[in-house]
Write a structure and sequence with these properties.
Layout: H1 32-48, H2 52-59, H3 63-71, H4 79-89, H5 93-106, H6 111-119, H7 130-151, H8 154-170, H9 172-175, H10 181-196, H11 224-238, H12 243-254, H13 262-266, H14 270-288
Helix pairs in contact: 1-5, 4-5, 5-8, 7-8, 7-10, 7-12, 8-10, 11-14, 12-14
């Protein structure tokens, strides 16, 4: 049993038949970027069969400091101790360093502190696995379009996709042996996008402002406002669909992706993707129809 993007917090050690007591959960004070690397690192540790004592012996740091790092508790950890932990677990350094740096900025660490931490640890250049590079190049445009629909700006969309690809590299040994790598990677992207998407109080993602990135917003015809109002309602309804239906609808109707490309991006068979699209359209018709016509 290993950690996956849909699983959230990794399972406790006893789920793997491990020694030791159940670990404390991640601190609520840990930010989104901090959790982006902390959750998979914890998952790798718990799946490895190592105890906290084993990690202490391998890293050279005290049990208290390692425990605080694994819980995301207290001060944001320096790169040196973080590096010692991932080296003990055999994880790649380059993606981890970028994820660590992003979380340090999120924790409002000064740029000088971040640079000094990184300079204290000498590392060799590291290239991603060729298969990882080929995969990310193939899906980058589709992933960015999906992220942009929820996060609105190109900068935020590209940043989240880059974060996703770094986590995927960090977890590549798991991803490459999963039953469906396309599905594994898509779940990972969706989890990172949804973590940052603006939401309604009921938890549904708010897609309404994505209307203003469509071509219709530049229309000057008399029906312009009516069309915009209808689009706002449509985008609102799409955000309330179940995950797979929402994903298909966003890619097909908001991102205007050709239907034949969607199954591969989502890691679904063409038949399942068609069925999901059919159910999504039926659900949207129900959501958008006047109450009197639903009886």
């Amino acid at each position: 049993m290993i950690w996956s993007p849909d699983a959230g917090e990794p399972p406790p050690p006893d789920a793997y038949g491990k020694r030791g007591r159940k670990p404390a959960p991640i601190s609520e004070d840990a930010g989104l970027s901090h959790r982006a690397w902390l959750e998979p690192v914890r998952g790798f540790l718990f799946a490895s069969g190592l105890t906290l004592g084993d990690l202490v012996d391998r890293s050279g740091y005290s049990k208290t400091r390692i425990s605080e790092l694994l819980r995301g508790n207290g001060y944001y950890p320096a790169w040196e101790i973080t590096f010692s932990v991932i080296r003990a677990l055999g994880l790649p350094v380059q993606p981890m360093r970028r994820l660590w740096s992003a979380a340090a900025r999120e924790a409002e660490k000064p740029p000088g502190w971040i640079a000094q931490c990184i300079e204290q640890v000498a590392v060799q250049p590291e290239a991603p696995p060729i298969a990882h590079q080929a995969f990310t190049e193939a899906v980058a445009d589709a992933y960015t379009a999906y992220a942009r629909a929820f996060l609105l700006t190109e900068h935020r969309a590209r940043w989240v996709v880059a974060e996703t690809f770094d986590i995927l590299w960090l977890c590549w040994s798991q991803a490459a042996t999963s039953e469906n790598i396309n599905r594994y990677a898509w779940h990972l992207l969706r989890s990172r996008v949804m973590a940052r998407a603006h939401r309604f109080p009921d938890g549904a993602p708010d897609l309404r402002t994505a209307v203003f990135s469509t071509a219709e917003v530049h229309d000057t015809s008399p029906d312009h406002l009516v069309v915009l109002s209808e689009l706002v309602d449509l985008f609102d309804a799409i955000g309330r669909l179940p995950h797979d239906q929402m994903d298909v609808a966003v890619l097909r109707y908001l991102c205007e992706m050709p239907a034949h490309q969607i199954p591969d991006i989502l890691g679904l068979s063409p038949a399942i993707a068609r069925a999901v699209d059919h159910h999504a359209r039926a659900a949207l018709e129900c959501l958008l129809s006047p109450p009197s016509t639903r009886e």
